[in-house]
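Researcher: Here's the sequence for the chain we discussed earlier.
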Amino acid sequence: MPVGWSIANGLVGYGEAEKAMKERAASIARGSIGETVWLLEHPPLFTAGTSAKPDDLLQKDRFPVFQSGRGGQFTYHGPGQRVAYVMLNLRQRERDIRKFVQTLESWVIGTLARFNIAGYTVPGRVGVWVKRPDKGILAEDKIAAIGVRVSKWVSYHGISLNVSPDLENYDGIVPCGITDQGVTSFEDLGQLVSLAEVDMALRQSFEEHFGPTADAAFPDLTGIEAATLA
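Model: Thanks. This is the structure I predict for it:
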């Protein structure tokens, strides 16, 4: 069956999104609904993964902070960042979480390649990186974060890809616990592209790595919680 592909049209509050994800993942585990990828933007906020260190939250009052069940440490979400929540049934694929995360990374790398951005992975660090020779011979920046959770062999949470967010908002945290490198975006790399263009590339690359997709509906949560957080 094709994976359902849904794109939210506005900002979606984090609490509402996480609740909807968990409900959809539980339904997928029961076999009552098909796999789903949900693309959205959040209002400015920080999330803390299961490995987050309290000292890595540098500015506690800058944005709302949400405890997240995903793996990883602190990260930032906000407008101009494409978040893709990936709810796939690994019982019908491979019950190999490490390989699943590696395939998510390959999906992002394939997306970046469509814009002539050379993304790559770094041993011991989850996510996707790019070289920054303009900052120094050994400099590299993170352009995409990955954090997932798997329950009953169904994944949720997923990836965040920086298209044109305000990168100064990362100053409020130690992003993903990394202190010796920075973060970047399409815009920061000189690629002025729209979210719609990135979404198209994400879908094409996803289909190469995970199989066919089909347009699907998802509950319209835009503005419910976001209105109180923006």
